[in-house]
Amino acid sequence: MGGQRKTLLFVSGDPGGISSLAPVIETCESFADITLWLHADSLAAYSPRHPQLTSLDINALRAFAPDLVITGTSMAPDSDDKRAVRLANEAGIPSIAFVDFWSNYRERFADAAGKLHFPDFIAAVDDAACGEMAALGFPEEKLLPIGPLRLEGLPKPNPDRKGILFISQCLEEAYGGREACRQRLGYCPEDAFRCLQAAHIPDMPLAVRFHPREKPFPLPAGVEDWSDGEASAALARAELVAGMTGSMLLDAYFMRLPVVSIQPGMVGPGNQREDALMLSRRGFIPRLGSTEELQEALPGLLAASPAIAPELASWSDGKAVARFVTLIRRQLA
User: Fold this and answer.
1) What is the pTM of this model?
2) Selected residue with higher pLDDT from 295 and 75
3) What CATH number does domain 164-312 carry, 1.20.1250, 3.30.460, 3.40.50, 3.20.20?
4) Kind and range of the H or E run holding 96
């Protein structure tokens, strides 16, 4: 390497992507110069201290000529992550994309016409995600299990935490509207929240955290909005975390908070929809679909002392970032 520092371009199209990549960026600062391209939504989860690329197009990328492009993965057909991978391929610049969740694999790499654009390597949360992508026809030589990056550095829950926090998501925006969302999943975020609200324990505070890209639904009187501030800080304030399928439920689980997935309409006779949340799909947390189920389950969940399942203990080994950085260093050598 001749003593010359290499240049890395990190690209994120949503808050989840930058939340995962942030500890990698911090580690790479010691041996590389960092430049960012962050979608405005990513700024809700990360305060950059590095220069940002002025534009994300082929001319700008060729002029900047980073040694490596590193991206998150987003579902939107025109996401910045996908554009960065496509442009890097066109410019002959190596790239790595990180898949931070066990769902929507093709959507993370497909353009508006459905054509898949792959980076040089796809780093994923675990072997299961790699296997599921391989089963979809992803090139196996590109797939590498790294671990859940976002789990490193999670705060401890506050000792005086109180209330139930519902984590909403931009599902309607992702699927093209409320009815399209219901058709695809069986529910929309407000449906899931209303189930929780109806089952809510009297005198127990209830709060909602909306996704930065989401159009918030109206909140009833007395329900607090915890959308401001860092996501992990909001989790640390809660006694119990409820949601649908988002990454924040994974964070809450590894913070050893009681967690429940609410997916009304997702299950039922003749229903072939697949649960996108690995934790509930594999039985590590409950997945409930009705107010009645929640009313029965909430007291026990609030009284529980959650523990991480032995099968998932290796995920919190504290080495995922180091594995990702090793992959980056190999590409720069």
Assistant:
1) 0.85
2) 295
3) 3.40.50
4) strand 95-99
